[in-house]
Design goal:
The longest helix has 15 residues, at about 35-50. The protein contains 6 helices and 13 strands. It is about 25% helix and about 25% strand. The strands form 3 sheets. The chain has a 6-stranded mixed β-sheet. Strands 1-2-13-6-3 form a 5-stranded mixed β-sheet, with no helix packed on it. The protein has a two-stranded antiparallel ribbon with strand order 10-11. By secondary structure, the protein is an alpha+beta fold. A hairpin with a 4-residue loop joins strand 7 (about 100-105) and strand 8. It has helices spanning about 35-50, 120-125, 125-135, 160-170, 185-195, 220, and strands at about 1-5, 5-10, 55, 65-70, 80-85, 90-95, 100-105, 110-115, 145-150, 175, 185, 200-205, 230-235. The protein has one domain: CNF1/YfiH-like putative cysteine hydrolases.
Length: about 240
């Protein structure tokens, strides 16, 4: 899909790759226990299909750390959960299996970013940190377009009452309950509230729930499983 003129974004699914069960088949996550050769092949195949030659993969650690990048990290990725760039043709990848991939662009400034925003990262503010970091490089939040990708929805993401209260204390919009009435978190609503507070008005959604969507990986549903990705890149 095009987020804007010159800005492309894609959410992958689990089909069309080479990984064996339980990672079948387009697992893009290198830290999930899959055969590294299969992950490498899946990443190369996906990049070729997207028409990009360079991809930034993070070592995601559930933080609010954000880094400006001009190329891939290489064999030892930085322990960060947000990256941004002005480099055309450089794709930013966010790996997930219940957390939300958040893809952000300011097409006017030719700046893009991606954040891995799960429970801990959302509570820590990784998405606002990404918006702030992009603004420091010349982006304007009012011009930004954000896509919140699939994640575990607020009716499925059951947590303890204590954990819900802890997150809701810093992000009230994330308070939720399951369909059975038990405590839950709505990470999507929390991220949307953070983006609005940061001045980002154009917020779009792929509102599939990972737990309810068999075409997507879900750690909560399956335990041992792979990772799908959100990709964003600037056209040359």
């Amino acid at each position: 899909m095009q987020l804007a003129d010159g800005v492309n974004a894609v959410i992958t699914d689990r089909s069309g790759g080479t990984s064996a069960a339980p990672y079948d088949s387009r697992n893009l996550g290198g830290a999930a226990g899959d055969d590294p050769a299969a992950v490498h092949e899946n990443r190369q195949k996906t990049a070729a299909e997207l028409g990009v030659e360079r991809v930034v993969y993070m070592r995601q650690v559930h933080s609010a750390e954000v880094r400006h990048v001009t190329g891939p990290f290489g064999e030892d990725p930085a322990g960060v959960d947000g990256v941004h760039t002005a480099e055309a043709g450089l794709a930013l990848a966010v790996l997930v299996a219940d957390c939300a991939p958040v893809l952000v662009a300011d097409p006017g400034a030719r700046l893009i970013g991606g954040a891995h925003s799960g429970r801990a990262g959302t509570a820590a503010g990784v998405v606002p940190a990404l918006v702030e970091a992009m603004a420091a490089h010349g982006a304007e939040p009012s011009r930004m377009i954000a896509l919140i990708g699939p994640n575990a929805c607020g009716r499925c993401y059951e947590v303890s009452a204590e954990l819900r209260d802890e997150v809701a204390a810093v992000l009230p919009a994330a308070w939720s309950a399951t369909r059975q009435g038990t405590p839950a978190l709505d990470i999507r609503a929390g991220i949307a509230a953070q983006l609005a507070s940061a001045g980002v008005a154009d917020v779009r959604h792929d509102d599939r729930c990972t737990i309810e969507s068999p075409e997507l990986y879900s750690y909560r549903r399956d335990g041992r499983t792979g990772r799908f990705a959100g990709y964003i890149w600037l056209e040359p």
